């Protein structure tokens, strides 16, 4: 059976704080991006978590959905983008959303939905990206650990 849908799962770490503070502004911005990339959005629902700081919002689309779980104190956003609409551009929407939120690190997983009988469905594609400053900080930490290690006789 031919694949009829694409699910993109995105984990974004250390996103810009200014974009995460107001749930209505963020949901409206991403709704506009969804329209721009032909995701055919028609409804937005915002749900606050029990602690009053974290929230989630759901954009219902014709032939799919977009879901964001936002944790402003941690700077973390988890997103799912799904569509079966052939005219939609879920990958372009996901890239635009990532550019808008500007995370330091991210992990993107692509899953073909309704792709019965192929091994690709069992092994989703992953992509990760870190900003240069994050990579340099890790190199510096490893270098310091190496230099501060006791020398053997």
Q: Which word captures the global form?
A: globular
Look up the CATH topology: S-adenosylmethionine decarboxylase
CATH H-level superfamily: S-adenosylmethionine decarboxylase
Number of strands: 7
Helicity, as a percent range: 25-40%
CATH architecture: 4-Layer Sandwich
Number of domains: 1
Using only C-alpha atoms, the radius of gyration works out to 19 Å
The structural class is: alpha+beta
Low-confidence stretches: none
Could you explain how this protein is built, in words?
With 153 residues, the chain is α+β, with helices and mostly antiparallel strands. It has one domain (5-148): S-adenosylmethionine decarboxylase, CATH 3.60.90. It is built from four helices and seven strands. It has helices at residues 17-20, 23-36, 90-101, 132-148, and strands spanning 5-13, 41-48, 55-61, 64-71, 76-83, 105-113, 125-130. Strands 2-3-4-5-1-6-7 form a seven-stranded antiparallel β-sheet. The longest helix has 17 residues, at 132-148. The radius of gyration is 19 Å and the shape is globular. The relative contact order is 0.22.
Attribute tags:
4 helices, 31% helix, S-adenosylmethionine decarboxylase, 7-stranded antiparallel β-sheet, single chain, alpha+beta, 153 residues, 7 strands
Topology:
Elements: E1 5-13, H1 17-20, H2 23-36, E2 41-48, E3 55-61, E4 64-71, E5 76-83, H3 90-101, E6 105-113, E7 125-130, H4 132-148
Antiparallel strand pairs: 1-5, 1-6, 2-3, 3-4, 4-5, 6-7
Briefly characterize the structure.
The protein is an alpha+beta fold. Helix content is 31%, strand content 36%.
């Amino acid at each position: 059976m031919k694949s009829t849908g694409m699910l993109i799962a995105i984990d974004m770490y250390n996103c810009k704080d200014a974009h995460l503070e107001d749930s209505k502004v963020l949901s409206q911005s991403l709704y506009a991006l969804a329209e721009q990339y032909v995701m055919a959005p028609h409804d937005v629902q915002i749900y606050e978590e029990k602690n009053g700081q974290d929230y989630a919002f759901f954009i219902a689309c014709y032939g799919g959905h977009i879901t964001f779980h936002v944790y402003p104190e941690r700077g973390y956003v988890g997103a799912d983008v799904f569509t079966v609409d052939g005219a939609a551009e879920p990958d372009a929407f996901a890239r635009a959303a990532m550019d808008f939120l500007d995370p330091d690190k991210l992990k993107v997983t692509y899953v073909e939905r309704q792709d019965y009988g192929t091994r690709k469905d069992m092994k989703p594609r992953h992509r990760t990206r870190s900003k240069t400053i994050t990579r340099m900080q890790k190199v510096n930490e490893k270098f310091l650990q190496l230099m501060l290690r006791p020398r053997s006789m």
